[in-house]
Automatic annotation (TrEMBL):
<feature type="compositionally biased region" description="Polar residues">
    <location>
        <begin position="132"/>
        <end position="148"/>
    </location>
</feature>
<dbReference type="InterPro" id="IPR035437">
    <property type="entry name" value="SNase_OB-fold_sf"/>
</dbReference>
<keyword id="KW-0255">Endonuclease</keyword>
<protein>
    <recommendedName>
        <fullName>TNase-like domain-containing protein</fullName>
    </recommendedName>
</protein>
<keyword id="KW-0378">Hydrolase</keyword>
<dbReference type="GO" id="GO:0004519">
    <property type="term" value="F:endonuclease activity"/>
</dbReference>
<dbReference type="GO" id="GO:0016787">
    <property type="term" value="F:hydrolase activity"/>
</dbReference>
<dbReference type="Pfam" id="PF00565">
    <property type="entry name" value="SNase"/>
</dbReference>
<dbReference type="InterPro" id="IPR016071">
    <property type="entry name" value="Staphylococal_nuclease_OB-fold"/>
</dbReference>
<feature type="region of interest" description="Disordered">
    <location>
        <begin position="131"/>
        <end position="165"/>
    </location>
</feature>
<keyword id="KW-0540">Nuclease</keyword>
<feature type="domain" description="TNase-like">
    <location>
        <begin position="1"/>
        <end position="122"/>
    </location>
</feature>
Length: 203
């Protein structure tokens, strides 16, 4: 059981349930390492839900493309999807049309973010697109002094450029397009470029 999927017996049949509007870090992905706070989310799901009667509330879609039941999971008068967000163990993941509680969830997520708990305690880890593998190097020490401090080196060499489709890409010296790139921004380190939302040029 991952933090955002669980097994439930519905009408006597075991089903996999995928929580709507939330995404927890991976613990059981076949090709990805265990991500920070994935085990915590998974353990919290087990502690809270295992062996308990829950109510499933559906939104517009009944199932996802993998055949999993899409639901908001209620245990008593609390919604488990919200509990994950409150504890900083999940980020919001929006897949229309299932957006019934999105505004409420955004409020909860922003409170967790302000408190810097769970996934929000690692700088640049949780993003709109998912969890950023590269930020794990800082560990969970709460050390968030990474990229910003290094911006004032004397001779930044990394060029950050925004291409015609709005993608932010950075180029390092020696790269195929380095010399022809007109930078929007310059960076001292690749980490700094990534923290500003740029991805590395593929060539």
């Amino acid at each position: 059981m991952d933090g955002d999927t669980l097994k439930a017996t519905i009408d006597g049949k075991e089903e996999t349930v995928r929580l709507i509007l939330v995404d927890t870090p991976e613990t059981v992905h076949p090709s990805k390492p265990v991500q920070p706070f994935g085990p915590e989310a998974s353990d919290f799901a087990k502690e809270t839900l295992e062996g308990k009667d829950v109510e499933l509330e559906l939104d517009v879609s009944e199932r996802d493309q993998y055949g999993r039941v899409l639901a908001y999971v209620w245990i008593g008068d609390k919604m488990f999807n919200e509990m994950l967000l409150e504890k900083g163990l999940a980020r919001i993941a929006i897949f229309p049309p299932d957006v019934k509680y999105v505004d409420r969830f955004r409020e909860i997520e922003s409170k967790a973010r302000q408190k810097e708990i769970g996934i929000w305690s690692i700088e640049n880890y949780a993003t709109e697109e998912g969890y950023n593998e590269t930020s794990e190097t800082q560990g969970n020490t709460g050390n968030t002094s990474s990229a910003k401090a290094s911006a004032d080196c004397d001779d930044p060499k990394i060029k950050g450029n925004i291409n015609s489709s709005g993608e932010k890409i950075y180029h390092v010296p020696g790269g195929q397009f380095y010399d022809v790139t007109n930078p929007e921004e310059m960076f001292c380190t690749e980490e700094e470029a990534q923290a500003a939302g740029y991805r590395k040029s593929k060539r």
